[in-house]
Amino acid sequence: MDVNSSVRYVPSVGPSLATRLKKLGIETVRDLIYHFPHRYEDYTLISDVKSLQPGETATVKGQITAIKNIYTRGGRKIQTATLSDGEGVIQVTWFNQPFLIKILPVGTWVSLSGKIGWFSKKKAFISPDYEKLSTIGQGTLHTGRLVPIYPETYGLSSKWLRSRIAAILPEALHQIEEFLPSSIREQNKFLELRQALEKIHFPKTLEEVEEARRRLSFDEFFSLHLTSLTRRQDWTKNQLAHRLIVDQEKVLEFIRNLPFNLTLSQKRAMREIADDLSKNSAMNRLLEGDVGSGKTVVAALACFISAQNGFQSAIMAPTQILAMQHFQTLEKILTPLGIKVGL
Questions:
Q1: What percent of the chain is predicted at pLDDT more than 70?
Q2: Which positions ≥6 away from 257 have C-beta within 8 Å?
């Protein structure tokens, strides 16, 4: 299966579930393997029944020896089962899952992971995760390990997502190409991409989780940075219809007419903006500064240069109050220079 194929072609998905996956931003096979867990349940402690203690989280493998539904007066449905590992037995309790009677009939070998508590004054597994076993030594996906928990949506549980990812990951990883040079990986001690994707989904230890996150986080920021550089490159290719001529004498006249002296930072910002306006490519600049640091007067210079070239300028503000304040400031600065300011 191609990683760029629609996720609807993943086994056990289809059109209906593909629509639900789209709500999670998953449309292709690649999207599915890049749908990362946001946390993990630690079910790595594998115990025998006799060793279980209330309050601990553990995994036990054994056989269902009894199971039934109990209906309370309040309409609740409680499922109680008995699990035996050959050395001991423990009660297992679920709530409002009557279908478990058919899924886990007497004689079923299961792996249970969850918290040990009390039910009806007896030590019990309370709402554990379960996984059917064909043999007692069978490897597990949903229990007995670090179990990934994914961002979910209605009708798509982490258990379902886990199963689908496990089914396609081995084949999909063969199609994932490493793009970081080995020198960068070695210098930063990054995992290879295929290793990182495998370990983020199905790690053996929390240390492997951190290794995978470190590599994949770098990839995300690296991609954002490349996108930003590409956009900047494309931006510089845009030719202006009118290149502005910056008259240095007029700029000095503008500065002399200000009712205050400019700071070094204001002068530097004005010089850089004036240089940008005189280029063939459009200016794309972010001017930052604290409240009262003089950003408006720097913007006023850009408006002044535009007016000297016969053009209008527009300054937008997020509120009416701020728009009025900018209007009053710009009117004081630009009107004495023969430039009309409107609100």
A1: 99
A2: 333, 336, 337
